[in-house]
Amino acid sequence: MRLLKALILLLAASSVIALIVASRATPRPLTAIAAVQPAMNFGYVRIEGVVTAYPTLSEQDKFLSFRVWDASGELRVTAYRAVVERLLAERRIPLPGDRVSVEGTLRIRDDEPSLILNTAEGLTIAAPPAALIRLAALDDIALGERVQTAGQVRRIRSAGDRLRIVSVRDGDATTDVVLPLDLPAFIAAPQLGIGEWISVTGAVGEYRGAKQVLALQIDISQEGTTPAAGHFRPIAELGDHLLGRWVGIEGVVSDLRPFKQGMRVDVTDASGGSIVVVIFDSVWQNLPFSTTLSVDDRVRVAGELTEYRGQVELLPELPVDVALADEPSSSAPGDDSITARALLRISRRSVQLA
Would the pTM count as exceeding 0.90? Predict the structure, then answer.
């Protein structure tokens, strides 16, 4: 009789274990984030989507939080203690642009749903390839998509203790590249200089309606560092139809005329055209050759094409936009070779971030 009871208990335990294993092996039905309701509190669900921002990670406190978007809505996912330890050990931390599948327990407080990742096995991550694009095409890319693009560093600033913002330009197109400062084990924040050309791989984000790139990898290019970042054009072709555009020129200094706020430099090129380059003191005083520049020197200049009293002028923005040119530029009008080299020929140093 005792043997029979033991066999019955063993069979019952085996059945329960088999049910648990089978339930874990069976994929959970996919739940759309928008379909989550307060009545589903503490329910166990599976969601799929794209990570839209950098995660919040504390290795010391064993805490992880990230947001997932599935086109119907966005949901915050959190993990704690042993689960975070496991994910860290396996270097499986979701980053912007990752496609993820997450299984866990729903928590709904004040009508705000979130999901608790109960096990490390409940998270799967797929890193999609990055699409190679020009910076001007960024506005047409969906949020969360992975891209690789290039631009010239124009400004570097910090946004609190967590983020560094790098503004970049390629011709008329500008955007911000965002770098996290609190994820050094997964995304490094390299030292960048104003005027450097960089290739950026990351996910498309948005801030106050403007698209930006959440960087995962940055490459710094040896080529494509010409200060006159932009499209080189013959001066004779510059006119009212290009006002407000960012253009680059190369030519010979034909006159220098100081004014109260800086220097006006007349530049003439082989097309026979001439243009006034207005260099304000904030730029002029930071040029290493400002005290020696003279007539017949060859220069390369990039800037915004503006108009003053009916005359078209070129307005450089930073000292890197003005450079001496010993030889004629090999860039033809509208040449895209600067950006192509920045994207495809990264040769000086590469900073691997992810």
Answer: no
